[in-house]
Amino acid sequence: GVPGVFPEPQQDPVIAIAAVALRQGAREPFLRVVFTLRSCAPLRGATVRSFD
């Protein structure tokens, strides 16, 4: 990739977006999810959603 430029699937080998959701006042998140293009190894404590 190029610094300051959003990743491109044609150039960048890994594209992933991760999110953590927390209820106000809670200490622990109720949702940890990673969205990836193509496959991804399992990640402990997170749900992985892979897309082609």
Automatic annotation (TrEMBL):
InterPro entries for the chain: DNA-dir_DNA_pol_B_exonuc (IPR006133), RNaseH-like_sf (IPR012337), RNaseH_sf (IPR036397)
Xref: Gene3D superfamilies: Ribonuclease H-like superfamily/Ribonuclease H
Stretches assigned to the DNA-directed DNA polymerase family B exonuclease domain: 3-41
Pfam families the UniProt entry points to: DNA_pol_B_exo1 (PF03104)
A GO MF term: nucleic acid binding
Protein's UniProt name: DPOD1 polymerase
Organism: Buphagus erythrorhynchus
Native organism taxonomy: Eukaryota, Metazoa, Chordata, Craniata, Vertebrata
Gene of this entry: Pold1
